[in-house]
Amino acid sequence: MKSGVRSRERFVFQPNRDIAWQSSHSPWKIWTAISCLLAALACSAWSHGQSQPDGLQRLTHHVRPAVSNGQAAMVGALPATQQMRMTMVLPLRNQDQLKALLSDLYNPSSPNYRHFLSVDQFAAQFGPTPEDYQAVVQYARTNGFQVTDTPVNRLIVPIVGTVAQVEAAFHVTMNQYKHPTEKRNFYSPDREPTLAAGVPVAHIAGLNNYSLPRPAVARGTPANGVAPRQRVRVPGAPTWAATCGRHTTEARP
Predict the structure, then answer these.
(1) By the 8 A CB rule, do 177 and 208 touch?
(2) pLDDT above 70 covers what percent of the chain?
């Protein structure tokens, strides 16, 4: 690579992978990853679910249009004993302040330019509170899920459970559908998940596998010696991107 030229790395937000990735990097890179990922989430529609008259909250962005409009033909029910790995994503606090901070960090005229926070500082100011995090962990365990990790930044609760547990906890029916554009079946809930209104959850990653990760840019070394961006695109989902230092990060529901 030529001197003075930096490559950019692009990541699709996958909570189980990306949060683990942070722990093996320097504090500055940890901040880079966290700030990018969460700035994207802060600008997205992921927030508390919509309150319902029955005391439940309804989440969004879990059922693809192909399912809701009938384009994807149902093949059958997902086996009740099948194991599923999911990630419960908590909403951020103080999102307006986070957006302002991220803008200042990369504004040379700002007094906060490149004044990065530590992971602990970020969690204290913008992350879920310990009480909120424990409420999500407790909800998962009460509904029979195994909590496989409890990251220090309190952003996600990775869980494992059966289809039957998923259906009971989130008031959905898990089905298999014929993919409308690919030669395979996929699984999905038949409706948007609902859960107790007091449990602070923004999204449940892993409830469907309509889209599979795939490279959008092939690796290679162009003539100018600058490495290309590496990007994994999950089609059909909205994208929020934030560029921080050497990293450009995408978040997808």
Answers:
(1) no
(2) 64
